[in-house]
Every structure is written in C-alpha cells, then in structure tokens.
Amino acid sequence: xxxxxxxxxxxxxxxxxxxxxxxxxxxxxxxxxxxxxxxxxxxxxxxxxxxxxxxxxxxxxxxxxxxxxxxxxxxxxxxxxxxxxxxxxxxxxxxxxxxxxxxxxxxxxxxxxxxxxxxxxxxxxxxxxxxxxxxxxxxxxxxxxxxxxxxxxxxxxxxx
Length: 160
Ligand SMILES: [Zn+2]
Description:
Layout: H1 3-27, H2 35-41, H3 44-52, E1 70-74, E2 80-83, E3 87-88, E4 96-97, E5 105-110, E6 117-122, E7 128-133, E8 143-146, E9 151-155
Antiparallel strand pairs: 1-2, 1-9, 3-4, 4-8, 5-6, 6-7, 7-8
Residues 74, 76-77, 79, 122, 124-125, 127 line the site of zinc ion (ZN).
C-alpha cells in the first residue's frame, strides 16, 4: 500500500465518528424560531415558561387532573414528550411523569434556587418543560415535574 493512500485511510477513519455523529444530529429536526415568532404562537404565560424558564403556580393547570389515555405534546413544537401511561399523581400540583418518550428531552443544571436542580427542555424546540427529581415511582424512580402550560394533551382517539 502506498504511503499516501495509507494516510488517507487513517484520516478517513479518524473523521468517521464525527461524520456519523453529524448524521445522527441531523435526524433530529430542530424547531428554531426567533423571539418574535415564538410570541406569535405562544400566549404570554406559555412564553414565560417555555422561553424564559418560568414555573407556573401549583394546581393551576387542568392537565394536573387529566386522566384520559393519550399523549402529552410540547406546546411549542407539538412533539409527543409523554404518554398517559407514564403519568402519576405526585400530589405536588404539577403534571408528573416517571418516564418520557426517548430522545425528546435534554437536561441542564438550574441554579436559580439555593440547591441546584436538574431542569429539562424539549429536545426539538428547546422549550423549558420542568424539573426532574429522583423521588418518583418505579420502574425509573424519576419524577418529571412538568409545567402544564408547556404541554398540550391529545386524547388517544385523536392520535394518528
Ligand atoms: Zn418542543
């Protein structure tokens, strides 16, 4: 094998992981909008929570008492984040889930209160959803404490 070809192969081998990583990133179609565009489709309350990382008052969302079968979608981009069979009554006053659909959220540390908390966002539009805690029920032990205003509910009968 000629030396030059060998070097080319090595470079290709080194680049391959980055190429496939990029291909993976492209599979997730992000929804990116300007502040003005978000304000057109969200009301003030939704904008405060999704785009300014706000938190609604407990027991303020009708979704807290939603018991029907169906999906909970991000209100910003309509991506299904949770199913009704992932929901449980945490008694906190916020819609709570012990699991989410795969590849739909990302987490980051929030230092707004004295003790750092883990907040999570919709992976598609990066809208703020809520905070995740380690005191949820099995099988995950997680409690995704979600703002109802960040979600919209679609009953099972209306799901595609
Ligand atoms: Zn979203």
